Amino acid sequence: MSGGRISAVLVALATVLATRSVAHAQLTERPQPVLRRVPIQTPPQAVVSSRLIYMRRCPAGIGCVIRPGNEDSRADTSSIPNSQVTLTGFKQSDEIWQQVMTCMRATYAPFNIGITDVDPGNVPHFENIVGGRGSELSSDLANAGGVAPFTCDEIPNAITFTFDVYGPDADALCWTAAQETAHAFGLEHEYNAADPLTYLQGGPSMKRFQATDSPCGEFTETTCSCTGQATQNTYKHIVDMFGPGAPTAPTVSIQSPSSGKEVQPTFIVRINAMDDVAIDRIELWIDGVNTGLTAKMPPYRIAAPADVAQGPHTIEVKAFDVQGTPATATTDVTVGPPCTASNGCSGGDVCVIGVCVPGPDTPGGLGSFCTGNTECLSNNCIGDDMGNKACVESCELGNDSSCPEEFSCIAAGAGGVCWQTGGGGCCDAGRGHPAGPALLSLGVLLVVSRRGSRRRRRP
Ligand SMILES: [Zn+2]
Fold this sequence. Notes:
Number of strands: 26
Bound molecules: zinc ion
Strand order of the largest sheet: 1-8-9-7-2-6
Strand content: 25-35%
Shape: elongated
Distance between the termini: 41 Å
Helix content: 10-25%
Radius of gyration: 28 Å
Largest sheet: 6 strands, mixed
Structural class: mainly beta
Number of helices: 5
């Protein structure tokens, strides 16, 4: 095969930590995993060459011997060293090793791939050798955190390396091992701090393959050289190669309404849901019937239909992860008549367009102070040009009775929001709200923080 002969070497960019950092110290730059382009090993496979990753802990005092040659985990040969080398043994404790193994298994759990630290012998397998330093493997890898051969495609029986340069940091070792093994599956560096393919600091210490289309690149966003597209999707790439692993259901709960609550037509159901890969959607079912209403992005909120009859009902939310695995949560409510601006809500709730919602005395409730959307139960934090910010709910412009007493429905963006304007001053003190009508008559309210559709978030 002559077509794919590429020999770019991606150079290590960081230095090895000389000492462990102390609290509050600026972290030294992380030794980065690197990759090496090598000739394409075999024609693309219809099926993967193996479903096994052997995590090979180089034994203390003995190390791991690697001979130069084609990528072959069964023969301990690799194209990366120029001559026979010995990587020194992994110096961290058994406890750290077990943490690395647990992390690697969790990282690859969404896929039909096994992770073992028992030598599988003379059968096809991917191998990640853990130990030593880059300089022991090749003089140009002195500052590397790991290295992998790379062709943009699967490299059968690839040997990849994770160097023992992170101290007892199991998450950092796992991040590197996950990145290097994934390079051998054809994935390149990704500009997404939650993904093991990242070079970025500052993301979660535990990385997971993200089911999102993310730009490639180390420290800037770049086009992906393998896909030829702007993005790659590591989860999709690996699941397309290996298929899904044993399903793990999402976790889901209903934040509100609480069980036994009296609610109004079009009441809002707020849902908390998490998944090890990603939530695909959440469906709202009432009395065992799918309403067809869904939420796809957090924070998950679904407004119930207007035609739910008054009386008791069972509310069920069904969360599905990207593999289609469901999880459900239920709550029982009683639907009552619509509330009015002055009547029909209990506790700290207030009435917005006939529906009781948490009011100013509830953290994140309507009219409470906020600095960003995520602090609001409505996911909508708005400020005026005097810097006053509050959580708002949508209302019907021109209909002040669609907002609670002491609030007015004022223009903001394309529609209206309930803004606290009345109350005579007694109760607003300390909440930092504008005096109201004078300000509003200026018409200067600005929508300051709409959710950015391009913002990446971790599932
Ligand atoms: Zn890399």
